[in-house]
Amino acid sequence: MGAEKQYIDLFAQSEELINVHSAPLLNEQRSEAMRHFAKMGFPDKKSERYRYTDVEQLFAPDYGLNLKQLDVDANPYEAFKCDVPNMSTALYFIVNDSFYETNKVSAELPEGVLVGGLKDIAEKHPEILKKYYAQLADVSKDPVTAFNTAFAQDGFCIYVPKGVVLDKAIQLVSILRSTIDLIVNRRILIILEENAQARLLVCDHTTGTAQFLSTQVVEVFAADNAKLELYEIEETSRTNTRISNMYIHQAQNSSVHVNGMTLTNGTTRNTVDVQLVGRGAEVSLAGIAIEDTNQHVDNHTYINHKTTDCTSRELYKYVLNDFSTGAFTGRVVVSPGAQRTLSQQTNNNLCLSKNAKMYAQPQLEIYADDVKCGHGATTGQLDEAALFYMQQRGISQKEARMLLMFAFVNEVIDTISMEELKERLHYLIEKRFRGELNKCGSCSNCKLE
Amino acid sequence: MLKIKDLHATINGKEILKGINLEVKPGEIHAIMGPNGSGKSTLSNVLVGHPAYVVTKGSVSFKEKDLFAFSPEDRSKEGIFLSFQYPVEIPGVSMVNFMRSAINEHRKYNGLEPLSASAFLKLMREKRSIVDLDVKLANRSVNEGFSGGEKKRNEIFQMAMLQPTLSILDETDSGLDIDALRVVAEGVNKLKSPTNSTIVITHYQRLLDYIKPDVVHVLYNGRIVKTAGPELALELEERGYDWIKAELGE
Fold first, then answer.
1. What are phi and psi of B102, to 5 degrees?
2. Which ipTM value was assigned to this complex?
3. Is the pTM of this model over 0.80?
């Protein structure tokens, strides 16, 4: 044990300070979380769950924490307009790990709906949130979740009561901005009651040259017949580290679609843990990772079919160049008695250079007999015959490669239901493949760089 | 237009072409026939610059320029088109995007502005009719799920779009039923002009009933061993290739 000691000490010294700048609901969970964290320590490479991402190593550098939740000198509205053109979203900002309070009312929301800073909503509506907060994210099982639960002071919350459908998609822009290297701990809580529906788009950006390590814990509760679409786009920097643990709990006939796209990053680990507990629940997980230099993306998914008639689908695609590494673990458990389960997992990867590495690990554990489960993982190169065919028609090799890479990831983009977001992603991904990274073209930050 | 002199080429170190000499003039149609493994497809692949083939000797000039100085894509833009024996399926790349990229790269090479979306779609419509290519196919991914006949029609459609000066049809008749063969051949004939030339590579006479060659060559063991008028194709159809081998003393 090495890196964790400073955080255990820091917590002991600063618990009061952390609590003052957060809400009681969050504070109640801290000491228990820290106790588990101290017991487990950061996972090293021997840990099965984190075998492809050395978390201990990632926490080793000296980072600061903004425990006083001091305002960062930034007006994200002025600085950042990475919204999706033509898409009318309800727009919110998180700067580092604090919700950005603003007078701007970004959208009229239906009655009873709560959208905003987690700290604020936890203070005002503890009676609603206490049934949910930290109830899925088990601090005894995952050290990063324990770490996040101990330190997280704020974040984002969506609560949609029974029967309410949010027509407008919610967009959360998360901006990492600091003059010193920083650890940020963000928490997202999404609660959809029976028959509620919402769509959320989260995008991560960094500005400036400071290094960030961000931990994120997302908890999603989808009650009977609830429907959620959750899109995450990471466009951070080569020195950014992101560890995200998402927990999803689905009741009867609920439907959840999660699509995580890593366009630019340093080191990223995304865990998605789905519990299908109600009959007929349906989950679809999708992801894209586009990597070069020495970027690293590790998507770790765990879907537990706990009852009958549930469906799960997974589609993850990686494009790896230079010395980058990718990992995909897809663990699907069909519990005893979970009959008529449908489960399909697909992971396709392109290695564009000899030094790029992909680790693909499908894991199916089936304890029921009337099920239909499949998985397929492929790792290969661009189709040489297709490249030559296109060149023979006058298309340059560079352009032909672009078309093929684009076609490859497009299958994932096609799972998106929002047309405007699809178009935006086409634009961003094309820029990414052309090497014009981190420039969204629509905000002053990107234009300045 | 095309002058091939003493062309030698290898694949994986094995010599396949052993001194080809051939001249194609503007407006001419040449048929290249020959038994399996004689080097017909190698010749077409070498002309379009397939990376698996290595030219070890000889020269090819196209419109008085050294062909080998051009990349495969520039050979296309210089006006060489290959109708592939086995057109490649490219899932996820739509025919429209594929053709638009190709057309605009050709235009850029010739100093022209890219076509507007409407002008491009109009061109697609116009050229599609030449080979009766179904609009549904034009909206799909390149060759994906196309039948053998549809793939060959698609090749000729692309040829119509790109208007090459030299078209090489590599076994365009293989896998075609008689109706599809007629449609494809008629398409080729509609595109014929006094300034462009065609090389038809085929096993059989039947395609040559529709596309009338001016010159017929027999390729055997990496060399052109016989050149004559269209009557040679009929003779080969009747007598096979053995008599040629016998003439060569094999």
1. -65, -50
2. 0.96
3. yes
